[in-house]
Design a protein that fits this description.
Blueprint lengths: L11 H6 L4 E4 L10 E4 L21 H11 L9 H20 L2 H17 L6 H23 L1
Antiparallel strand pairs: 1-2
Helix pairs in contact: 2-3, 4-5
């Protein structure tokens, strides 16, 4: 009796989502199993994650300004409600990416600024600048905390 074990199985739903995927069987060398290669096209479109309005955005004046500017803009005047909401979502998503893209990296950069400031000699406004940097670190930590709640 000879059995064929080297196969790939998928559901019809999976096949409909990934119609261009191909499977190739390589020759068995040093084993009685054939290695299988699953080849995918390199241009799969990433699906956007759903939009979520973050709680900490309420603390940002820029957020309200963006919403007001987009909602009341001349191009949005003729749009229906859903289209206006989509424009606001797009604008807020872009703003959020720029402003809050990586909290950890921001904290590390701020700590480095604080370290550089500490190592400088004869800095006249040391306390004020150091206090501002510390406040920015705390604010970034708070935003990260709100994000993960």
């Amino acid at each position: 009796m000879k059995e064929r074990l080297d196969r790939v199985l998928c559901s019809m739903d999976w096949r409909l989502v990934f119609p261009e995927v191909e499977v190739f069987s390589l020759p068995a060398v040093g084993s009685d199993h054939n290695p299988l290669i699953i080849q995918t096209p390199t241009t799969y479109k990433r699906h956007n994650k759903p939009f979520h309005f973050e709680a900490h955005w309420n603390d940002e004046v820029e957020c309200r300004e963006i919403i007001s500017k987009v909602w009341n803009s001349h191009f949005a005047a003729h749009l229906v409600f859903i289209a206006k909401v989509q424009k606001v979502i797009t604008a807020l998503s872009k703003w959020s990416c720029k402003k809050f893209s990586n909290g950890h990296a921001r904290v590390m950069a701020l700590k480095q600024q604080l370290q550089d400031l500490t190592n400088q000699q004869n800095f006249t406004n040391y306390r004020e600048v150091a206090s501002t940097i510390r406040e920015e670190i705390k604010k970034t930590w708070q935003m990260e905390e709100q994000y993960w709640q």
